[in-house]
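thought: fold this chain, then report.
action: predict
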Amino acid sequence: MSTLAHTMMTAARSADSGLAGSGEIDRYPYTEAPPGERAALRSWGGADSELGRVGRRGAASRGRGLHGQLVQQLGQMIVSGDLGADRPLVPEEIGQRFEVSRTVVRESLRVLEAKGLVSARPNVGTRVRPVSDWNLLDPDIIEWRAFGPQREDQRRELDDLRWTIEPLAARLAAGHGREDIQQRLSDMIEIMGHAMGQGDAITFSRADAEFHSLLIQAAGNRMLEHLSGIVSAALHVSGGPVTGCDRPAESSIGHHARIAEALASGDGAGAETAMRQLLVGHQERVVPAPREH
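observation:
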């Protein structure tokens, strides 16, 4: 196994276990929270509350600080419909219910406002905005929709986008021949192969996501490159190995290898065809139901 493969697999296992590697702990926002605020967020309301169900979902505790956790919980509530359009969000009430400071609430609402989920106006306050105002290309919103009641719509829409973006990116990338990216693509295929052999789904999915991001980068189109985050989010929520929905197949490795080979030989049509074959297999996967914890 190459040094790169070993390093990436070790890092993936550390991240999945919640442990930071040497010198990495400072990257976790949780370490920036004041000691008095390093407590688990409480779900909003009692067992019968419309806000009480979301707190059990695992996405709200991925090593994020209180600010990130609150964004996650409120975002899930809005996207799932638990907090409907035009619902007022009172910062004082949020702070009291979740036992967080006004600063955490204020910054969290600003993030949600940037995503188009809420609006804050003088003399009106903060209210939930309708779906038509949401930034549906935001990776967080993609994830929240994919594990909520709209998961089937989200899957279909993501598949449509990937069929538009990735075959084109593969064809364009074949005409650029960047050796550094070509080597990284080969490295990702190697990592995916080793990870599959060891049953390491976390490492497999991360190498898979990086392969597709590199491919879009290699296309040499800045607008396409701007969409790489959408593809990464799609891979994360689409029922692939990162969700525990299924085990990666040998055919997936083969399709990735054929894409890389076509890129190396400058065969744009071949790269586009290989990407379409990969996406056909991807569409056969099923989006998992929301995970309750």
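thought: worth noting. Residues 13-63, 239-246, 286-293 have pLDDT under 50 and may be disordered.
final: tokens above.
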